[in-house]
Write a structure and sequence with these properties.
The structure is a single chain. The chain is α/β, with parallel strands linked by helices. The chain contains 13 helices and 15 strands. Strands 1, 2, 3, 4, 5, 6, 7, 8, 9, 10 and 11 form an eleven-stranded mixed sheet that branches. Strand 13 (about 405-415) and strand 14 form a beta hairpin. This is Choline-sulfatase. It holds the Pfam family Sulfatase.
């Protein structure tokens, strides 16, 4: 072939390569599907990828191995409801006024990830434990109010207001002690799940994590069937391993050499892990795993009672749920997105549930309009995950408040330093260097008075800023 005749062939080949590269870049840069998985009261040490050799969690371990493991990931509060609101808004719980469990509902003026993604054409679904507002309009209680997922951007909803038994979620389990729920009787009326505004009455037996995933999978399949350019956002908040924590016999047999409490606790976590595996397999079957960003975390540290019994674990960290120590707010977490997150990644940078919103916002190219602009307390996690950022450039603020019984715990983390005010009545304020003392054994407040004062001032600044937000500074009326 002559040189002149070969030139068009070469140009055509180069053009084809360039088009292929452009398509690859375009595909990897496209806005992803997003799935937020969250367990309930699962301690930092209650999972294989954090070193637990007793609890069987192969699917979550594989997710962490195939993506990134967060070694220092924080729930925004040491209990459920405040953290849940932080996941969806990117804001400290004290900003939106949910200071403890059942104390309020998520305000409609808050902008959630679901509302953000709906503007981008996403289908949105919520599945599992809501706990930031009642899901039934006729519910009555001494605390909280009706504020279901459908008021906050979710189209498909399969939700309970709060906790249910992790096995047979409509029936109060044997051994449960309560004035309102007797063993064998219906759990909170017998139909705790609402499915798109109607009480769910079918397919509610057995493992509750499976019950939830049975609704998640069809939602994803339907969206994929709608076309290759369709995108979805699924929030999947399991009840496991919150009490009443019960496992089926199949899962209890895996821990036959353990006592009854561990059989139920470990078994329920393994059953949940099985459903995470089912989800990951479905993404691969549908060939959308490369286009899907999946996060997993717990909502706070392990249950007080189960931690004190040695059943649940915060690993080597001090404290548990309802406490401002690391054991109350440091949780297991990982994420995967094969085209953007390198397998086997780990990070010690302090990350948090408040970081979901800005991370997803940047991934899909969202920005607030001037009229909706408000403080967002989180950071974009992708530079951290990809190694471009080695430290957090924003402080983290935590709180748990029930003033009527003297509960007013708060903490601020700046870099490696943490100022902590204990949640109990008249609790002490302590200062820790988390780099040198991750297990919070040495209060350095007296030896570093200037830092103690600086951190105390910063805590007060953040508390005051949050007070302004929840008094209406961020909303237009």
């Amino acid at each position: 072939m002559s040189r002149n005749k070969s030139l068009p062939f070469l140009l055509t080949s180069v053009l084809q390569v360039c088009i292929a590269i452009a398509m690859t870049i375009g595909a990897s840069a496209a806005a992803p599907n997003v799935i937020l998985l969250m367990s309930d009261d699962q301690g930092w040490g209650d999972i294989g990828f954090n070193g637990n050799e007793d609890i069987i969690t192969p699917n979550l371990d594989a997710m962490a191995a195939d993506g990134v493991r967060f070694d220092r990931f924080y729930a925004a509060a040491p209990l459920c409801s405040p953290t849940r609101g932080s996941c969806l808004t990117g804001r400290f719980p004290f900003r939106f006024g949910i200071l403890a469990a059942h104390t309020s509902g998520l305000r409609v003026a808050e902008i959630t990830i679901a509302e953000m993604l709906k503007k981008k054409g996403y289908a949105t679904g919520f599945f599992g434990k809501w706990h930031i507002g009642w899901v039934k309009p006729e519910e009555r209680g001494t605390r909280g109010h009706y504020s279901p997922p459908s008021h906050h951007g979710f189209d498909e909803v399969f939700a309970t207001t709060s906790a249910v038994p992790t096995w047979d979620p409509t029936v109060t389990p044997e051994g449960w002690k309560s004035n309102s729920n007797k063993p064998g009787q219906p759990w909170k009326g017998g139909f705790p799940y609402m499915h798109n505004g109607v009480e769910a009455t079918e397919n509610l037996d057995g493992d509750d994590s499976r019950v939830i995933m049975d609704r998640v999978i069809p939602f994803i399949e339907e969206r994929v069937a709608a076309g290759p350019d369709e995108r979805f956002f699924a929030t999947v908040w399991f009840h496991t391993p919150h009490e009443p924590v019960v496992a089926g016999e199949k899962y209890k047999r895996l821990y036959a050499d353990r006592g009854n409490s561990r059989q139920n606790y470990y078994g329920a976590i393994t059953a949940m892990d099985e459903q995470v595996g089912r989800l990951r397999s479905k993404l691969r079957e549908l060939k959308i795993e490369n286009d899907t960003l999946v996060f997993f975390c717990s909502d706070n540290g392990p249950s007080d009672g189960l931690a004190k019994k040695g059943v649940a674990s915060a690993g080597p960290f001090k404290g548990h749920k309802h406490q401002m120590y690391e054991g109350g707010i440091l949780v297991p977490a990982c994420a995967e997105w094969p085209t953007r997150i390198k397998a086997g990644s780990t990070t010690n940078v302090r990350c948090s549930t408040i970081d979901y919103f800005p991370t997803i916002a940047n991934a899909v190219g969202f920005s607030f309009s001037d009229s909706q602009s408000r403080p967002i307390d989180g950071i974009d996690l992708m530079p951290v995950i990809q190694g471009a950022s080695a430290q957090r450039d924003k402080d983290m603020f935590f709180g748990f408040r029930r003033l009527h019984d003297g509960t007013d715990g708060q903490a601020v983390i700046r870099g490696d330093f943490k100022l902590l005010r204990e949640a109990k009545r008249e609790g002490r304020t302590r200062l820790y260097d988390l780099k040198k003392d991750p297990y919070e054994t040495n209060d350095i407040g007296e030896s570093m008075p200037e830092l103690f004062q600086s951190m105390s001032s910063r805590l007060e600044e953040l508390d005051a800023s949050c007070q302004q937000s929840r008094d209406g500074a961020d909303y237009s009326y």
